[in-house]
Design a protein that fits this description.
This protein is mainly alpha-helical and about 70 residues long. The protein is built from 2 helices and no strands.
Length: about 70
């Protein structure tokens, strides 16, 4: 039983490291685009627009009140 609990306690660390690795790999690929101010603004706008689109879509689908 002790081995099971030790093994079970490793899953949150694995989840956190996996998510962190995905974000690091994603932002490393975007880093060259932030050297030019025009592409930096466009990239930030696309990311912000995508986040807003997902947020508004989920709010509408779940029936949450808008602020």
């Amino acid at each position: 039983m002790k081995d099971f609990l030790i093994n079970l306690s490793r899953y949150p660390v694995y989840l956190l490291s996996s998510i962190l690795g995905i974000f690091i790999a994603f932002f490393e690929r975007l880093q060259p685009w932030f050297k030019n101010p025009i592409t930096a603004i466009a990239t930030f706008g696309i990311l912000a627009g995508g986040f807003a689109f997902i947020a508004f879509t989920l709010r509408a689908m779940l029936g949450l009140p808008t602020v």
